[in-house]
Amino acid sequence: MTNAISTLETLTDTAVDSALGYETAAEKAKNPGLKQTLHAQAAKRRETVRMLNDEIVRLGGDRRENGSTLGAAHRAFTSLSDAFQDSNKAATERVEEGEDYIAKKFREALEHADLTPESRSVVERAHAEISAGERLADRLEKQFD
After folding, report:
1. Which residues are in the DUF2383 domain (predicted)?
2. CA 85, 88, 89, 95 torsion-angle sign
3. pLDDT tens digits, 58-109
4. Whole-model pTM above 0.70?
């Protein structure tokens, strides 16, 4: 069970990082439609975080709300580099990079993690939302490239 909690904690931290990334990208975007889309996606990702946290608590762990140290460092670095780019393009590029990363983490967890059937079901539902976000990010990057 500890292995399942550890996997869920890692995925949850990554999902928190992703939600924060969407919120940061929405702040940087100038296009009103893009801003709205990014805020909506951040809300969906927060719902995924809630779902993952509920499973962690069910297994006896503690809720995760702060994301990872690596995610915070990445946001700081990209804020610096984004200052020199078109805001809409930079926002969509960062979102697309983040979605590729999080999708890979969830795929790996589903392929290799020792999860209970209930936990696997939660991760599969979360992965479905992550996959939809990855497709959206690809479309946005093409639109604003």
Report:
1. 4-111
2. positive
3. 999 999 988 765 544 444 444 534 544 568 888 888 888 888 989 999 999 9
4. yes
